[in-house]
């Protein structure tokens, strides 16, 4: 494999540079974009880089610098400019969450690859297979919130958009040749409606560890106190909770609670630094769990209607066969959420399905009659 040589990306970290860049890009027909965030290093992640490429120039925008990042908004919402991403969903979530951006006219090369039947759809896989380009992934887990970033880190970030215009051209040609372009465009448009998620701590979240690990009520009480303390320490130290204590370590501590600093020091997954700075707090939390009230587990989810389950199973089997015939993954046909909605609603006509998100005009035309037939046949049994 080869590694192409091209000029370093132009680094944008002043408002004057950004203002000039936005004016320059206003007439571009295509922009390739990606983002880098720092979720592995801080309590609340944020977008730390925005990479942007035209067909001839790469840029890296620093949203942590003193610039008005809102200047990018009109470019992203301009329907005349096609925006190319690879695996856009998480980038769009982050851009909407941090900046409130709205994006239209998307081309997602990962979605396009899936519609074309590719099994290995990572950007590195596709660049290697289609362009014989080797991507160095050593910087994938870099701390993108650090400044200054190394030249190697910036080069890695630049690679994420540099080849996207050419990759887009390859897949657009394939989609058109296979008469799948309308299907892809419908899926791209749906992706633009993804909603941002905001950090919210659930104090009852320890049950997702207690129940599958079959902890006793008393062990669950210890886990609860450790879970709450971990979150508090993580927020105070501006670190992701898993960097304080992993879920596995929390469960181990709840099962066999250490009762001394020496015992804490001897536990796998508990760092010496944590014991020095928060050892007494951890022991107090464990003691509170051992002495306090026992928690009441959440009520179980109500069982699904058996008739709805049967309808869903019939639709899933239809989808599986459709996907095999096309040589794609099942969710390329229709998503699982849409199948559940169809099973619960039991539509009688195409009109009954027109308002279901994820079942746009192309899918309705291509699969609507078959879906109705599957539902009708199963409902007659």
Summarize the structure in words.
51% of the residues lie in helices and 8% in strands. The relative contact order is 0.09. A six-stranded mixed β-sheet has the order 1-4-3-2-5-6, sandwiched between helices. The termini are far apart. The chain has helices at residues 15-25, 73-76, 88-99, 109-115, 123-131, 151-162, 164-177, 181-191, 207-210, 217-237, 247-255, 261-265, 272-291, 306-326, 330-333, 336-345, 361-379, and strands at 10-12, 30-37, 47-53, 58-61, 82-85, 106-108. A hairpin with a 4-residue loop joins strand 3 (47-53) and strand 4 (58-61).
CATH class of the largest domain: Alpha Beta
CATH superfamily of the largest domain: Ribonuclease H-like superfamily/Ribonuclease H
Helix content: 40-55%
Q: Helical segment tally?
A: 17
Average pLDDT value?
96
- What spatial form do the alpha-carbon principal axes imply? flat
Rg estimate, integer Å: 25 Å
How far the N terminus sits from the C terminus, by CA atoms, comes to 56 Å
CATH architecture of the largest domain: 2-Layer Sandwich
Topology:
Blueprint: E1 10-12, H1 15-25, E2 30-37, E3 47-53, E4 58-61, H2 73-76, E5 82-85, H3 88-99, E6 106-108, H4 109-115, H5 123-131, H6 151-162, H7 164-177, H8 181-191, H9 207-210, H10 217-237, H11 247-255, H12 261-265, H13 272-291, H14 306-326, H15 330-333, H16 336-345, H17 361-379
Parallel strand pairs: 1-4, 2-5, 5-6
Antiparallel strand pairs: 2-3, 3-4
Helix pairs in contact: 4-7, 10-11, 10-13, 14-16, 14-17
């Amino acid at each position: 494999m080869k590694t192409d040589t091209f000029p370093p990306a132009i680094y944008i970290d002043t408002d004057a540079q950004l203002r000039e860049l936005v004016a320059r890009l206003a007439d571009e027909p295509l922009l390739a974009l990606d983002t880098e965030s720092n979720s592995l290093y801080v309590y609340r992640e944020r977008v730390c880089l925005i990479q942007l490429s035209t067909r001839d120039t790469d840029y890296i925008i620093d949203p942590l610098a003193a610039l008005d990042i809102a200047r990018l908004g009109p470019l992203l919402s301009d329907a005349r400019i096609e925006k190319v991403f690879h695996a856009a969903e998480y980038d769009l979530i982050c851009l909407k969450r941090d900046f409130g951006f709205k994006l239209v006219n998307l081309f997602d090369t990962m979605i396009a690859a899936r519609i074309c039947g590719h099994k290995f759809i990572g950007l590195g896989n596709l660049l290697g297979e289609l362009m014989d380009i080797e991507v160095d992934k050593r910087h994938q887990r870099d701390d993108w919130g650090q400044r200054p970033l190394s030249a190697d880190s910036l080069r890695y970030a630049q690679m994420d958009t540099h080849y996207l215009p050419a990759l887009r051209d390859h897949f657009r040609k394939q989609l058109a040749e296979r008469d799948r372009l309308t299907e892809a465009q419908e899926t791209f448009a749906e992706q633009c409606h993804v909603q941002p998620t905001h950090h919210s701590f659930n104090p009852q979240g320890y049950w997702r560890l207690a129940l599958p690990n079959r902890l006793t009520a008393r062990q669950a009480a210890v886990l609860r106190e450790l879970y709450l303390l971990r979150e508090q320490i993580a927020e105070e130290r501006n670190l992701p909770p898993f960097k304080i204590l992993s879920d596995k370590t929390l469960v181990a501590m709840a099962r066999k609670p250490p009762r001394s600093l020496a015992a804490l020091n001897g536990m796998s997954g508990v760092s010496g630094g944590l014991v020095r700075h928060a050892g007494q707090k951890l022991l107090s939390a464990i003691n509170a769990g051992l002495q306090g009230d026992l928690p009441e587990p959440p009520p179980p989810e109500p069982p699904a209607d058996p008739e709805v389950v049967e309808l869903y199973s019939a639709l899933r089997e239809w989808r599986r066969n459709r996907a095999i015939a096309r040589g794609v993954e099942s969710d390329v046909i229709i998503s699982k959420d849409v199948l559940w909605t169809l099973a619960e609603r039991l539509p009688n006509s195409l009109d009954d399905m027109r308002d279901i998100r994820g079942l746009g005009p192309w899918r309705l035309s291509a699969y609507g009659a078959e879906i109705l037939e599957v539902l009708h046949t199963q409902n007659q049994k």
